[in-house]
TrEMBL record:
InterPro entries recorded: FAD-dep_OxRdtase, FAD/NAD-bd_sf
Domain FAD dependent oxidoreductase: 2-403
EC number in record: 1.4.99.-
Taxonomic lineage of the native organism: Bacteria, Pseudomonadati, Pseudomonadota, Betaproteobacteria, Burkholderiales
Transmembrane segments: none
Keyword list, A-Z: Oxidoreductase
Broad class of enzyme this protein falls into: oxidoreductase
GO MF annotation list: oxidoreductase activity
Entry annotated with the keyword Oxidoreductase: yes
Organism: Pseudaquabacterium inlustre
Source organism, top-level taxon: Bacteria
Protein name: D-amino acid dehydrogenase
Family of the protein in this entry: Belongs to the DadA oxidoreductase family.
One Pfam family hit: DAO
Length: 424
């Protein structure tokens, strides 16, 4: 089959590779000049299936209200709000009930575990080195933080996630670079989880897809899709205003926030909204006699919901969830929180004169899980809406989608991941 993939973020690249590996003739269309230039550019890099969870969760509306009242919360509301974002928040609020959240978290966890296994298999089989490191630890500063985490620990156990609740001394042995002066009550250690460089993996997997015959067309914006037995894709070069139309056997939409505009004329209104996240990345200091300077793998400060990851010779600090606002407007409070958490746990570990600051728009559906499979329009398929978990879900989502296009039953249960759930 001739298959077009729209979008070359981590989801689009993994989709292109899996389809090419199945023998399809794949062409990827990307409006930017390379892969992983937007949401996949500088994320935390953490792959921890047990902590892949819907943003729509019990207690989240109260956190949003606390923010509106001026108190600290890891959730922020940007400005301006669009009318569609207000509708999105209404659907998100309805999905925050305990039963809905439990169902959606189970769906996401199932896909995340499958994706973690697929990522590991591809890394090993293709000898892809993407600055990966094993181990993930959630830091609990006080007994109150631990008490607030009991429900999550219970759920981890129910989901079969391997973890250990450790005391402060054990946590500092696992991560010897942790600041001894910052209070630490306990930690949750997940030895089978870890961290990797999402953008680097995307570039290397693109190379593998090219070797399988896939084509990548950069700086080509998809303007319209016409469904059918041989769906038509219209694309153009913004610089030259050159518009072309090509027919394919199937079109896969992985265009993140560009997807709703392409799908709306087909009668499919996807409630995607940008939930922005921030990160700072800087080279680690080289201190003779202190090889443990900085994190060994990845940690997450539970109170501030900020992750600190080691990516080779660099450290990345990522967090915040900002609904609304603009990509080009940075919230100074969110950035300040990243610096604070880094200084709390690993003071002086980074060369901050060379810091790279980033803000990304994560395309999120109000209930949490992505949408995989047939769109309902002939010849058009969907793999989008992964939110802040795109890196953790990408390899599994791509394999599921490739199996569906090939007429095979996926290896995992995909109940609740189809577009039909958004029409109910």
């Amino acid at each position: 089959m001739r298959v077009a993939v729209i979008g070359a973020g981590i989801v689009g690249v993994t989709t292109a590779f899996e389809l090419a590996a199945d023998g399809h003739a794949v062409t990827v269309f990307e409006r930017r000049g390379s892969v992983a230039e937007e949401t996949s550019f500088a994320n935390a890099g953490v792959v921890a299936p047990g902590y892949v969870t819907p943003w729509a969760a019990p207690g989240m509306p109260a956190k949003v209200l606390r923010h509106l009242m001026g108190t600290h919360a890891p959730v922020r509301l940007g400005r301006p709000w669009a009318q569609g974002q207000l509708r999105w928040m209404w659907r998100w609020w309805r999905a925050c009930s305990q039963p809905v959240w439990q169902s959606n978290r189970a769906r996401m966890h199932r896909l995340a575990r499958y994706s973690q296994a697929r990522l590991g298999a591809l890394s090993q089989q293709l000898h892809i080195e993407h600055e990966q490191a094993q181990g993930y630890m959630v830091l609990l500063r006080t007994p109150k933080d631990l008490a607030g985490n009991r429900g999550s620990l219970k759920l981890l156990a129910e989901l079969g996630v391997k973890f250990h609740l450790v005391d402060a001394a054990r946590a500092r042995a696992i991560e010897p670079g942790l600041n001894p002066d910052t209070p630490l009550h306990a930690a949750v250690h997940l030895p089978d989880d870890g961290v990797g460089n999402c953008r680097q993996f995307a570039h290397l997997l693109r190379g593998e897809a090219l070797r399988l015959g896939a084509q990548f067309r950069f700086q080509r914006s998809v303007l319209a899709i016409e469904p059918g037995t041989q769906p038509l894709l219209r694309h153009g070069d913004a610089a030259s205003q050159d518009v072309q139309a090509e027919a394919f056997d199937a079109i896969v939409v992985c265009a993140a926030l560009g997807s709703p505009g392409l799908l709306r004329p087909l009668g499919l209104r996807l409630p995607l909204a940008p939930v922005h996240g921030y990160s700072i990345t800087a080279p680690l200091r080289i201190v003779e006699g202190h090889p443990e300077f900085g994190p060994q793998a990845a940690v997450m400060d539970e109170r501030f919901k900020v992750a600190i990851s080691r990516l080779g010779a660099r450290v990345r600090v990522a967090g915040s969830a900002e609904l609304g606002g603009r990509l080009d407007r940075h919230d100074a409070r969110a950035i300040a929180t990243l610096y604070k958490v880094l200084d709390d746990w690993y003071p002086g570990c980074a060369q901050l004169a060379q810091v790279q600051q980033w803000k990304g728009a994560r395309p999120m559906l109000p209930d949490g899980p992505p949408v995989l499979g047939a769109s309902g329009a002939p010849g058009v398929w969907l793999n989008l809406g992964h939110g802040s978990s795109g890196w953790a879900l990408s390899c599994g989502s791509a394999r599921v989608l490739a199996d569906q296009i090939g007429g095979r039953t996926p290896d995992i249960d995909v109940e609740g991941l189809d577009v039909g759930r958004l029409r109910r």
